[in-house]
Specification:
heterodimer; A: mainly alpha; Ubiquitin-like (UB roll); DNA polymerase, domain 1; three-stranded antiparallel sheet; 6 helices; globular; B: about 270 residues; Uridine Diphospho-n-acetylenolpyruvylglucosamine Reductase, domain 2; Uridine Diphospho-n-acetylenolpyruvylglucosamine Reductase, domain 3; Enolase-like, domain 1; 3 domains; four-stranded antiparallel sheet; 12 helices; about 25% strand
Chain lengths: ~180, ~270
């Protein structure tokens, strides 16, 4: 499932998730940046958690929920609170890192709805901005947290399996 | 970058994983979180014929308190170790070190067993389980066996695991009250990089990251501590018996210097006296 809709394609065993998302699903917001698990431009959500889609096989996501930037806005086109915060706080310059930054930030606030500035910076250490525009990105995430940006109700995420995925679950709970 | 062609197989259980590795033998390779293996495959430094995906094997994802130790399933993710309340109160060194691996995205995928079986001496968790005197449990066609962490790592990307064995569990002794002090220090160029040098301290046990082909105990430091040395005095022995590499990040001499500095910081933070 990609953004709540099933996407079926017969692909090579070695196809990476980022190529599946861009080529099979036709969703090109997710960028290929460094291709070495460093820059985070290809960040998407897998079952609600941020992952680097250049380092996951498409086959590993089979039967799971993938969410890309295109899946954040509501069906009516209303932007997700994180997208609105990035726009309001000028959290982008060239825009290349932005889809990955936004997805990593959504995941960050789901796990920690009220982060400190230091926690936002640590939480985004897997995402590089080639414009070095980090300051406004951090401001955007803090602003989204103020708005309750982790709340996904009323956004396009309803029905994607993201709401109530129990992301706060501990390892002990996973085991049960 | 695209990996070389391979066949993808998926195991739903430990039993199925062992059946598949028996079927494919040396051509098969287990895929856990994939955050060490897939990058190597993209660089064509690893070219397995068959990848056996352990992703669906949920039976190996757990953190449990057992008799005097914490049992951790090999497919437990760094993220789950980092946020485990049980680990935070019983073996905080491991929870903290897991939270220092890579970045949040990597920790959502990477697993403790994958990291240990990959045996990269620059990784954080191999030295951490060495400092904790953990026991690793492997299962193969002939059954299970226990391997002390001190015997497990053989060299860069080499362990004592047989080709048809699967690492299933990591058993971490709960530190005694007089060995409760801990610290994890690492020095990196950028936040997400591997450690140029790192150190894990639990009580008077001191293990080094990236100071040899395997994680190593800082035996000279431990001897000095046992003889009553103060942190600065003990840390002066940090590089003894090590064989640090020479690469783009650091010379051996610089790594030896870092080891002494980081060990002192770690001993002070752990309040080892």
């Amino acid at each position: 499932m990609v953004n709540g809709a099933p996407v079926a394609a017969d692909v090579e065993d070695r196809m990476l998730l980022v190529h599946f998302v861009r080529e099979a699903a036709g969703l090109t917001a997710t960028n290929v940046g460094c291709d070495t698990t460093s820059c985070g431009a290809c960040t998407v959500l897998l079952d609600g958690e941020s992952v680097k889609s250049c380092t996951i096989l498409a086959a590993q996501a089979d039967g799971r929920q993938v969410t890309t930037l295109e899946g954040l806005a509501s069906p009516g086109g209303e932007l997700h609170p994180m997208q609105r915060a990035f726009r309001a706080e000028h959290g982008l310059q060239c825009g290349f890192c932005t889809p990955g930054m936004v997805m990593a930030s959504v995941s960050l606030l789901q796990e920690n709805p009220h982060p400190t500035e230091a926690e936002v910076r640590a939480g985004l250490e897997g995402n590089l901005c080639r414009c070095t525009g980090y300051h406004n990105i951090v401001r955007a995430v803090l602003a989204a947290a103020e708005l309750g940006g982790a709340g996904l109700a009323g956004t396009g995420l309803a029905g994607t399996g993201l709401a109530g995925t129990g992301l706060a679950g501990t390892g002990e709970e996973r085991a049960s | 970058m695209i990996p070389a062609p391979f066949s993808y197989r998926r195991a739903d259980s430990v039993a199925e994983a062992l059946d598949l590795i028996t079927e494919y033998g040396d051509d098969g390779k287990f895929l856990a979180g994939g955050h060490s293996l897939l990058p190597l495959m993209k660089l064509r430094l690893a070219m397995p014929e068959v990848l056996i995906d352990l992703g669906p094997v949920r039976e190996l994802s757990y953190i449990r308190e057992e008799d005097g130790h914490i049992a951790i399933g090999a497919l437990t993710r760094h993220h789950d170790l980092e946020h485990s309340e049980l680990l935070a109160r019983s073996v905080p060194l491991l929870a903290h070190a897991a939270g220092q691996v890579g970045d949040p995205q990597v920790r959502h995928r990477g697993t403790i067993g994958g990291s240990l079986a990959h045996s990269d001496p620059a990784s954080d968790l191999p030295a951490t389980v060495l400092a904790l005197d953990a026991t690793l449990v492997a299962r193969g066609p002939a059954g299970s066996r226990e391997i002390p962490a001190a015997d497990f790592f053989q060299g860069l990307f080499e362990t004592v695991l047989e080709p048809d064995e699967l690492l299933t569990e990591i058993r971490v002794p709960v530190p005694a009250p007089d060995a409760a002090g801990w610290s994890f220090q690492k020095f990196t160029k950028r936040a997400i990089d591997w450690a140029i040098v790192g150190v894990a301290v639990q009580g008077r046990a001191v293990a080094l990251v990236n100071m040899a082909g395997t994680p190593v105990r800082a035996a000279g430091v431990e001897r000095a501590l046992a003889a009553g040395a103060a942190p600065a005095e003990a840390a002066a022995h940090a590089a003894e018996g090590t064989s640090p590499g020479d690469d783009i990040n650091a010379s051996p001499a610089y790594r030896e210097h870092l080891a002494r500095v980081l060990v002192e910081r770690a001993l002070v933070e752990a309040q080892v006296v």
